[in-house]
Every structure is written in C-alpha cells, then in structure tokens.
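dumping this here so i dont lose it
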C-alpha cells in the first residue's frame, strides 16, 4: 500500500460523514418548504394526524428554521415520528442528528441503527454512511467486507463519495481482493461527478499499473 493511498483512505474515512451531511442538508432544502401560514398549518395538521411525509417536512422546517423558530430537538422529534413509520429519508436524517449530536445526545450506535434502516430501503446516502461506519468501526464492529458491500450498493446508485471510497478499498485490498483496474474504474466514475479527490487517486493508480 502506498503512502498516498493510505492518506487518501484516512481522508475519506474522516471526511465521509461531513460529505453525507452535505447531502443531508441538500435533501432538507427540498423538504419542509412552505410558502404561507396556510400551507404550514396544513402540513402540521397532516403531521399530527400521522402522515409520515408531513412529519418529515415538519422536521425539515424545524431543522432549517423555515417558517418556524429553528429547534433541532423539535426537528429530531418529527424525524423520529416519521422514521418509526419507515420513512427512509427521516431515518437517515435522524441518523445524521445522532452522529452530530444536534437535537439529541450524540450516539454513534444509535446513528448506525437508523442508517441501517434507511440503507436496507435503498437510500444511497444511508448506504454510504453505513459503509463508512463499518470501514471505521464507528458505532459498529469494524468489518471491511461489510463496508465494501454497502459502499458498492451506494456506488452502483451513482453516489460519488461511495464510488471514490470503493475505489480506495480496491486500491488497498481492504474488504476485497486488491484490483487496481477496478479501483481506477470507480475513481473515474467519481471524478466524472466532480469528486475532488478522485483525480489524485487515478494519478496514483496510473503510476502503479
């Protein structure tokens, strides 16, 4: 394993959750948007009646402080209600809040459990974060084979951070048999989507092949 590749792996495992957090906030930009008090009241009415999507939207409004006073604890409450009904985006959001300690006591074990629930429903960013949890052993017993499994699922859905991570795993032979060609292919897919570290990985691989 080259020093460059080792550093790249440290970079990705350290920065992966923030990368997924950006996705979390991007998802929230399309969640809980209201235009007037009538819409807000209707969303609240549906949320109180148990509509999981409305509960997700209420969580998004409180998280962003849009049309209501920002309140992370209240956001977590609404995300939990939706998550308990199986709403995958709410499950991921709640996992992120447990990971960061916003609105709840930070708890990586709990975070992983919510990522897993969303991941099994096919949510790519949840699969990404679950893969990183297994790669780093944060909130779960470290298991590189399991990490590759979840990273691959996210990568196959086009998630660029997962594609890059999977490329690093192949380059280092972590959880898979080392395969520089396969690593390069995943890095190239990540690069095509603008992943900022993919070119460095591709350049290192080109020297070794």
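and the seq i came up w/
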């Amino acid at each position: 394993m080259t020093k460059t590749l080792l550093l790249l792996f440290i970079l990705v495992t350290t920065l992966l959750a923030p990368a997924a957090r950006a996705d979390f906030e991007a998802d929230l930009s399309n969640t809980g948007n209201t235009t007037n008090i009538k819409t807000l009241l209707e969303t609240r009415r549906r949320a109180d009646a148990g509509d999981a999507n409305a509960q997700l939207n209420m969580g998004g409004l409180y998280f962003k402080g849009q049309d209501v006073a920002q309140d992370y604890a209240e956001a977590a409450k609404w995300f939990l209600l939706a998550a308990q009904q199986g709403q995958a985006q709410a499950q991921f959001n709640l996992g992120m809040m447990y990971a960061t300690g916003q609105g709840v006591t930070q708890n990586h074990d709990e975070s992983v459990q919510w990522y897993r629930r969303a991941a099994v429903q096919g949510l790519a960013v949840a699969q990404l974060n679950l893969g990183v949890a297994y790669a780093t052993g944060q909130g779960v017993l470290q298991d590189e084979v399991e990490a590759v499994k979840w990273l691959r699922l996210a990568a196959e859905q086009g998630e660029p951070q997962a594609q890059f991570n999977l490329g690093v795993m192949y380059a280092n032979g972590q959880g898979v048999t080392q395969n520089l060609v396969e690593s390069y292919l995943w890095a190239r897919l990540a690069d095509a989507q603008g992943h900022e570290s993919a070119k460095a990985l591709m350049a290192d691989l080109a020297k070794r092949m």
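Residues 1-19 have pLDDT under 50 and may be disordered.
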